[in-house]
Specification:
- By secondary structure, the chain is an alpha+beta fold.
- It has a single domain (28-106), classed as Alpha-Beta Plaits (2-Layer Sandwich), CATH 3.30.70.20.
- Helix content is 24%, strand content 21%.
- The protein contains three helices and four strands; from the N terminus they run αβαββαβ.
- It has helices spanning 2-17, 51-55, 89-93; strands at 34-41, 61-63, 76-78, 99-106.
- Strands 1-4 form a two-stranded antiparallel ribbon.
- The longest helix has 16 residues, at 2-17.
- It is rod-shaped and about 90 Å long.
- The termini are far apart.
- The chain binds iron/sulfur cluster (2 copies).
């Protein structure tokens, strides 16, 4: 009888407090700051090598399809700036250091 009471108590505890083990689907934390990136590209120094476009995981960058800079290159620009995650892969691969990446924290 005592054993039955023990299990009933466990069951009651389960119903009231839920599972004690952490779940695989934690609820998202509220009020977490959103971090995104912003890139600036020096168009006149760009030689249109396309490395940054290929390196970007978020499809932010493209080469200008028609316009060229003073040196005659189709330069890179941020076609989808709102997608930037601030990973800095583009700045890392650019051989001419044309790109600067900023992390913007939205509170
Ligand atoms: S910082 Fe990352 S996501 Fe943003 S443009 Fe550069 S490679 Fe793309
Ligand atoms: S990697 Fe640098 S030089 Fe090459 S296209 Fe991008 S910005 Fe221009």
């Amino acid at each position: 009888m005592e054993l039955l009471n023990f299990f009933l108590l466990l069951r009651l505890r389960w119903l009231v407090f839920g599972r004690l083990a952490p779940t695989n689907n934690p609820k998202p934390l509220k009020n977490m700051a959103k971090v995104y990136g912003a890139v600036t590209i020096e168009a006149q120094r760009c030689k249109g090598c396309d490395l940054c476009v290929v390196a970007c995981p978020a499809d932010v960058l493209l080469l200008q399809p028609k316009e060229v800079n003073d040196r005659g290159y189709h330069y890179a620009f941020a076609a989808n700036p709102e997608k930037c995650i601030g990973c800095a892969a583009c700045a890392t691969v650019c051989p001419d250091a044309c790109i600067e990446v900023y992390r913007v924290v939205e509170k």
